[in-house]
Amino acid sequence: MTLQFWLIAGLGNPGSKYNGTRHNMGFMCIDELATRWNISFHDHKGLTLLGNGTMMLNSTVQKIFLAKPLTFMNSSGDAIASLSQYYDIDPDHIIIIHDDMDLDFGRIKVKSGGSAGGHNGIKSIDKSLGTNKYDRVRIGTGHSARGEAAHQHSIDWVLGQFPPVEQKELPRVLADAADAAESLIFNGLSATQEKVNAR
């Protein structure tokens, strides 16, 4: 029996003007995983930066792809669906890492399925895959404003940079999110939720 690859994709927007913004926390977490596991990236069909390698824990080896879609956030599903089809990766072997305004900064939660919660990248993936039954690592950014004019505030917020106090905490947050993604692969959803979501 052939061991199936896992696909771990971090969401964000390509281009230097988006580097370091809240909406690119998924990209940042993928870079953390790539550093840990010595994985380098190449262009895949102009749709995504893609790297592949292995993770190992307690002599258990898992083959993985790491992906940073180049399609911009709102069309993330185009890249994820292309990779899923090209490499025959089922949704239950897909992990999406993304920013989440509904969580306080630094809070990590994992889930499978459920609402996109207004996140356009997740909406796009749900539509392109035809299912929401994949795992997600949600990284909290906090929320700028609610109520009147909240939509524009939200756009400005997620495309904004982190203040110094959060910038200092960011490496820890990204490491925690990377740990959660690894745990999903090696320990499964329930065990990871029990460990991560209660924090």
Describe the model.
The protein has one domain: Peptidyl-tRNA hydrolase (Rossmann fold, 3-Layer(aba) Sandwich), CATH 3.40.50.1470. It has 6 helices and 7 strands, in the order E-H-E-E-E-H-E-E-H-E-H-H-H. The protein has a 7-stranded mixed beta sheet, with helices on both faces. 37% of the residues lie in helices and 23% in strands. The radius of gyration is 16 Å and the shape is globular. The protein is α/β, with parallel strands linked by helices and 199 residues long.
Topology:
Elements: E1 6-10, H1 25-36, E2 42-44, E3 48-57, E4 60-69, H2 76-86, E5 94-100, E6 108-112, H3 120-129, E7 135-140, H4 150-158, H5 164-187, H6 189-196
Parallel strand pairs: 1-4, 1-5, 5-7
Antiparallel strand pairs: 2-3, 3-4, 6-7
Short account of what is shown:
With 199 residues, the chain is α/β, with parallel strands linked by helices. It has 6 helices and 7 strands, in the order βαβββαββαβααα.
